[in-house]
Amino acid sequence: MSVVVHNLQEAILLPEGLVETASRAVERTLALEGYGTGVEVSLVFVDDERIRELNREYRGVDKATDVLAFPMHEEEPGAVPGAGPVLLLGDIVVSLATAARQAEAYGHDLSYEVAYLAVHGVLHLLGYDHENDRDYARMRQKEKEIMALLGLDAFEGEGELVKAARQVMANAYAPYSGVRVGAAVRTASGAVFTGCNIENASYGLTLCAERVAAGAAVAAGQRDVVALAVVSDTEKVQSPCGACRQVLYEFNPETLVVFVTPAGTRRFKLRELLPEAFDLSEK
């Protein structure tokens, strides 16, 4: 997977890390939409005058805008002999001047705004649009999800879920490891179910917080898990073990997962944590 960045403007000085953040936004969006290696996207930074010209020429709109996407979906031979073809998805053109104004108006930094516009542009390359209310809602939800997975935003309802996990962590039974873990899952209905780790002198009988929470949801007749929060009082991020990942994958590989410790917060989709999961469902 390749992101080729061109800076064709001079009005806005690129902050340190902006190109890396924007490239990561493009790569993560493509990965979440099922694209792997052998894909190339061009990300071009221009000024208001140039993006206005492009907007007028290709969309018939004579004004500057923040981002334009030009799909290609064409294959070309790989640069390395023997390598497979490269799929050129297209170009994303961002006006840094407009992005800077929007960042100031919305109260966040330029790197965040450009990352969001990059995600928006990639989704357009992949066929997402916002011509009607339903398509707008679908695209906006996808953008929010990806920004959260990039660590730039929180999941919708994340605060409530983390709070529930933190509260139940206090009930953890962990006399052997001394590590207390709380977990909370949210189902499609909006219901929240919690669990904490329950250790045992026979270590193999220990129950992880994530499976206890998932079991509570299933016992209540709700298997459509959509989000999971895991909270620990240790500095090290306590991500779900392999067994918990497999158990949760059974119900929804698209589950949004957030880990919270005093050291920080990380976010993933479950299928990112368990690639090539064991699955008996028919494809």
Short key terms for the protein model shown above:
Collagenase (Catalytic Domain), 283 residues, elongated, 9 helices, 37% helix
The averaged pLDDT comes out at 91
What is the approximate shape?
A: elongated
Strand order of the largest sheet: 6-5-7-8-9
**CATH hierarchy: architecture of the largest domain:** 3-Layer(aba) Sandwich
**CATH first level of the largest domain:** Alpha Beta
For the biggest sheet, the summary is: 5 strands, mixed
Q: State the end-to-end distance.
A: 25 Å
The tally of structural domains comes to 2
**Count of runs of 4 or more consecutive helical residues:** 9
Q: Structural class of the secondary elements?
A: alpha/beta
Strand content: 15-25%
Report the CATH superfamily of the largest domain: Metalloproteases ("zincins"), catalytic domain
H/E series = EHEHEEHHHHEEHEHEEH
Number of strands: 9
Low-confidence stretches: none
Give structural notes:
The chain is an alpha/beta fold and 283 residues long. The chain folds into two domains: 2-149, Metalloproteases ("zincins"), catalytic domain (Collagenase (Catalytic Domain)); 158-273, Cytidine Deaminase, domain 2 (3-Layer(aba) Sandwich), CATH 3.40.140. The chain is built from nine helices and nine strands. β1, α1 and β2 form a beta-alpha-beta unit. α4 (110-125) crosses α5. The chain is elongated. The protein starts with a strand and ends in a 10-residue tail after the last helix. The mean pLDDT is 91.
